[in-house]
Amino acid sequence: MLVDTAPLRQSPAFARLWFGGSVAQIGAQMTIVAVGLHIYHLTESTLAVSMVALWALGPMILAGFGGGALADRFDRRMVALVTACVAWTSIGTMTLIAFLGIEATWPYYALAAVNAASATVIGAARGAMVPRLLPGGLLPAAAALNGITMALAVTVGPALAGVLVATIGYAPTYLLDAVLFTAAFVGILGLPSLKPEGERSAPGLRSVVESLRFLRRAPNVRATFVFDLIAMGFGTPRVVFPAVGALVLGGGPVTVGALTASFAGGALLSGVISGPLGRVRRQGRAVTFAIAAYGASVTAFGAVLLIAGLASAPEEGAASGAPEVRWTALVLACLALAAAGFSDNVSAVFRTTILQAAAPDEVRGRMQGLFYVVVAGGPRVGDLFAGALATAIALWAPPLIGGVAIVVLMLLMLRTWRGFQRYDAISPTP
Description:
- By secondary structure, this protein is mainly alpha-helical.
- 78% of the residues lie in helices and 0% in strands.
- It has 16 helices and no strands.
- Helix 4 runs antiparallel to helix 7 and helix 9 (219-234) packs antiparallel against helix 15 (397-416).
- The two termini are 29 Å apart.
């Protein structure tokens, strides 16, 4: 039942990459939550929080295609190392302007966009490296281990961000991210040279066109992107968390950290007991059912917010002036988000495995770049959807309406994407 740790034992290079990325991701998730809280503090607008996504979306798309092309042309270790320097610089600059007390929102938007684009390039290079560091039979276990990395990051990172912002402020929180990010350099520097195999395409428009042509004739790879876009586009309610903590559930920043950490806690649990996932052959069908379960869990979270919102507003705390926490609603919301995180990580393990096993090495960097555009860009589209719907209707609307849409669409995909449902891990085909 427990996670297979064979990739860490059999490949010291993968182990170093995994450890360095695990530490760095904790700081990255701290900053994501801290930036959202900071923007909400400066503007008191959920829509303004969702604008962080809009600023980052364009650079992330360009970084996904461009970074993937670089990873298919040059040494992937060097691509990751150079981009990590850019990411660290953006975090350091954000720390500096926060200490200087700059209250204009655009520098934070711009630096968050640079950081997100850099993370996309690093992710594309890392994803293309893994099948070169491990045999194919260990790819599901590696995906599960990487799922644990992300789950730990979004469990510990947001919880720390909520507590640190509430106690010592935004600038020291950003500073801690800059310190933790140095672990990423350790993981990358310990890798061997990893130049692409096969024919190398020069970075540019032709390389992008070639990758799109491959995607057109690779329905199973294409399905992993489409299914995830549906899940993240309709089921990412995180931009409402600051307002939910302030107006519906009470608790302010600490509640925001608890909600985010609950999602990650479910993902962490699914990673810890991921042993059976390596024995699943019909991985496409597993993706479909996992995303349907994700939609049902997000719907439950929206229902909790709707019921809590029908009650009177939280009373003012006598001592601190902070809204009193509605504990029953908070616990139910956290349980729903934990279930969502559990099913989302199961989907991620299978989607990652399908992509790494089915895509040939000469296009793997570009496919990984597109994968990270979808994985990181999809939630940002979801942020915009959630921010607009929350502003137009209410805070409960994005998860409730979006979750129902996911379930309905997955039932439709189950009947229409039959080839993906028949995908066999023993004979992976793109």
